[in-house]
Specification:
Strand order of the largest sheet: 5-4-3-6-7-10
Number of strands: 11
CATH class of the largest domain: Alpha Beta
Shape: elongated
CATH topology of the largest domain: Rossmann fold
CATH superfamily of the largest domain: von Willebrand factor, type A domain
Distance between the termini: 32 Å
Order of helices and strands: EHHHEEHEEHHEHEEEHEHEH
Number of helices: 10
Strand content: 15-25%
Number of domains: 2
Helix content: 40-55%
Oligomer: single chain
Length: 332
């Protein structure tokens, strides 16, 4: 927090001054007891003066009101987060064959789809969201838009395909994000009002660009990449016989592991100034996307909050008057 007129904070000196005056006045009133010559009556009055500590509540609330009002005069300012102008998020999702694995229920891709649906409900409505998938190559499925219905339909149409081309997927996502933000200026940190959320469940097996080459393009464009490594280390798929030939088939067959590659994904996020997450359950991937949806594309803005302080001061003053009426105490 900062203040537009910090020198006016000196007005807060009135608070201890009023406190000292109130104590002096209270002691001065107690001296009136010597006017009574009747010792029994004097003892009764002195005993009546031994009141509980809560008798100071009206004064305490009054002093807090003065302090808050003094701060309001100094024009306090707070830094708040709000959606950046022309903010854009590109959801970049792996649809390789390993996304059929069921170690994350109902399947890796099914859990990712549910999480992305939760994400688009959480992200501010003014933020454009696009969808890019990648398998052996990348595909732009939904251009960045504020129409959540179109985006939801695109997410529902995702289905597992073949290989994993992370680098090429990143390159296309960067291109899509740059086109969406257009000439929007970069922030103080050199970043554009755009971000990419990359979800993948395995290592790169296809593509022209290596993952870190794709990350370099995002870094040079000033776009942060947040990565989610989906799946468990014991995830597997198999070729089945007797129940059909293909991934996840039943009957007899050979299974092989499909592990995520969190190390590569962490390197991508680190290179671009983003964050990395590990999701080994449907609830975890859902929590990650919800968290990102409320904070991923925002900028810091300074706002004067003098009215907040003035409102609190008024409430404290009313509370002080109410407490004085209940306790029978007088304010200085």
């Amino acid at each position: 927090m900062s203040f537009g007129s910090p020198y006016l904070l000196l007005l807060v000196i009135i608070v201890p001054a009023v406190a000292v005056f109130a104590l002096w006045l209270d002691r001065r009133r107690s001296r009136y007891a010597v006017a009574f010559t009747n010792l029994e009556l004097l003892a009764a009055v002195a005993s009546a003066r031994r009141r509980p500590l809560w008798r100071w509540l009206p004064l305490a609330l009054f002093l807090l009101a003065l302090a808050t009002a003094s701060a309001a005069v100094a024009r306090p300012r707070a830094s708040i987060s709000r959606p950046a102008d022309q903010a854009t998020v590109v959801l970049l999702v792996d649809v390789s064959g390993s996304m059929r694995a069921a170690d994350v229920k109902p399947s890796r891709l099914g859990a990712a789809q549910r999480a992305m649906q939760a994400f688009i409900l959480r992200v501010p409505k003014t933020v454009k969201v696009g969808l890019v998938s990648f398998s052996s190559g990348p595909n732009e499925l939904v251009i960045p838009t504020t129409d959540r219905a179109i985006l939801s339909e695109g997410i529902d149409l995702l289905s597992p395909e073949a290989g994993t081309a992370i680098g090429d997927g990143l390159a296309l996502a960067v291109q899509v994000a740059r086109q969406a933000v257009g000439s929007a200026p970069r922030g103080r940190d050199g970043k554009r009002p755009a971000a990419i959320v990359l979800l993948s469940d395995g290592a790169q097996t296809r593509g022209t660009l290596a993952p870190l080459q794709g990350a370099d393009r995002a870094r040079n464009a000033g776009i942060r990449v947040f990565t989610v490594a989906l799946g468990t280390d014991h995830g597997s798929l198999g070729f089945g016989f007797g129940g059909g030939f293909g991934f996840g088939g039943g009957g007899f067959g050979r299974r092989f592991p499909v592990r995520p590659d969190p190390v590569t994904l962490a390197a991508i996020s680190h290179e671009t100034g983003g964050k990395t997450y590990r999701a080994s359950s449907a609830q975890k991937v859902n929590d990650v996307y919800k968290q990102l949806g409320s904070s991923i594309v925002s900028r810091q803005a300074t706002r004067e909050i003098s009215s907040w302080f003035a409102g609190v001061a008024a409430l404290l003053l009313l509370g002080s008057l109410g407490a004085a009426r209940v306790t029978g105490e007088r304010l200085p």
